Amino acid sequence: MVGPYRGLFSMPGVKGFVIAGFVGRMPMSMLGIGIVLLIEELTGSYATAGAVAATVSVSFAVAAPLSGRLVDRFGQARVVVPLTLAHGATLTGLMLCAEFGAPRWTLFATGVAVGATALSLGSLVRARWSHLLAGSSRLHTAFSFESVADEMIFVAGPALVTALATMINPYAGLVVALVSTIVGTLAFALQRRTEPPIRPRERRSGTPITIPGVALMSAVFLAMGAVFGSVDLVTVAFAEEHGAKPAAGLLLAAFAGGSLVSGLWYGARSWKISLRARFVRALGTFAVGIIPIMLVDDVRIMAGVLFLAGLSISPTVITGYSLTEQLVPAHLLTEGMAWISTAVGFGVALGAWAGGRLTDAFGASNAYGFSFACALLAVTIGAAGHVWLRTPVARQES
């Protein structure tokens, strides 16, 4: 299984941007949960905590395509450095507002700034792979590796931030996320040898969201993001209801762990069926996998159920990014992938907000029903509009 991945790192400069990109995006699995844990500790309300986390996600979702377009126009380094420094300052501001008991609206105001300055670093990493491996079959393996790296982050991040916030200090998890963001992202920006070139003649033409396949993909990932956002928040509440709040990070790590295992397997295989067929099948498996979560009432069993539910995440995400890479022109690639991040961001915001409301009103186990409804919506949209996902290669074969 390791063989197909080994050859990816023989190219000059690859190890540098991969390691820096991994460190820099560690906070993507820590920020939302860290904010939920901090705000819930201060207010005692999951609804308020979910609303603040949702504000950050919405702000990020709105800003991500713009930052992606700026990267396509001016290059990664010129955009990454100032945004990273601004993000560090705004996240510090959010924690200071919480520490000194500032009016509640300041948490939302600083949350907007935190989200607006956050980078979709995964899109930038994948854009580098697309530049280095353009037209190569190894691009599938590279995207698979990046999804596995994402899932490693989602295995380690929730457990780490939960342990820091519950056992040391409510702010500790966010402080670690802040340091990881600044160190990793600035180190990534310094890896200039692998940075994709700017294409000035093409840079002003079009926007990826007008491509039907990208619009459909964004709708699917909006629904999937709602699953992720609701499962994250509801699982924290589920663990607390069962007297095991510190175990919330481990439960979420199990969810990501299933995706990590399937990502390794998926990327090591050569596939004969089309990308869009794989995408729809993975979505269907994802929806079915959510069902048992609604039926479990034991923390230990929940860990196993979440692991099984996570098995279809990586294949869906890997195939989604591969489809996007083929659907979007090269000069709009970063922005195109940022639209996927935007969709997920909006979905996470919706899921966190709805999950918090439903948990407060009906309890955690019942709130998982929202997660299943969103998963079912994702597969319905993907299956109904799969014809729009025909890539240029697929059209030649049909």
Automatic annotation (TrEMBL):
Gene3D superfamilies assigned to the protein according to its UniProt record, in alphabetical order: MFS general substrate transporter like domains
Keywords in alphabetical order: Membrane, Transmembrane, Transmembrane helix
Membrane topology: Multi-pass membrane protein
Segments forming domain Major facilitator superfamily (MFS) profile: 213-398
Transmembrane segments: 16-39, 45-67, 79-101, 107-127, 171-190, 211-228, 248-267, 279-295, 301-324, 336-355, 367-389
SUPFAM superfamilies in the record: MFS general substrate transporter
Record InterPro entries: MFS (IPR011701), MFS_dom (IPR020846), MFS_trans_sf (IPR036259)
Superkingdom of the organism of origin: Bacteria
Keyword set includes Membrane: yes
Location of the protein in the cell: Cell membrane
Protein name: MFS transporter
Biological source species: Streptosporangium fragile
Organism lineage string: Bacteria, Bacillati, Actinomycetota, Actinomycetes, Streptosporangiales
